[in-house]
Design goal:
By secondary structure, this protein is mainly beta. Helices cover 6% and strands 57% of the residues. It has one helix at residues 2-9; strands at residues 23-29, 39-48, 51-61, 67-79, 84-94, 100-112, 118-125. The protein has a seven-stranded antiparallel β-sheet with strand order 1-2-3-4-5-6-7, covered by helices on one side. A hairpin with a 5-residue loop joins strand 5 (84-94) and strand 6 (100-112).
């Protein structure tokens, strides 16, 4: 549950009217009682040419006391035209060898219809 809160935090930040706004942020979550494995989160945001790319990387404490990659989420949004936005979100985990593997992909196309009504088509894929 905690990881989902971190993942959504990057998407909830307010936008400004600046043509391009790139940023990154990091946070660390420790457990004073030691009952929860510490995690580090890094969020990045980049905008260019009508595209927005948000990335969230989560690291957890490994058995040797070093942080190791746990999961990554990449969300790319593309403004197709004045009424249509296409979004692709990919979530990656790690296999037993520590290699990055795709866990889930969500593709979404959202259109604003005359009168302001929204029509959204979403496809969710898991390997």
């Amino acid at each position: 549950m905690l990881l989902l809160l971190f993942s959504g935090a990057a998407l909830a930040l307010p936008q400004t009217s600046v043509a391009q706004q790139d940023w990154s942020s990091s946070s660390q979550q420790d457990s004073p009682s030691g009952t929860i494995n510490p995690i580090r989160t890094r969020d990045t945001h980049a905008e260019a040419d009508g595209r927005t790319l948000d990335k969230t990387s989560i690291q957890t404490m490994g058995p040797d006391g070093r942080y190791i990659p746990y999961s990554e989420t990449e969300t790319e949004s593309h403004q197709i035209n004045d009424t249509t936005v296409r979004t692709i979100e990919r979530t990656y985990g790690r296999d037993s060898d520590g290699q990055r593997v795709l866990i889930q992909e969500m593709q979404e196309e959202s259109r604003t219809l005359p009168g302001g009504e929204q029509k959204t088509t979403r496809t969710l894929s898991s390997p």
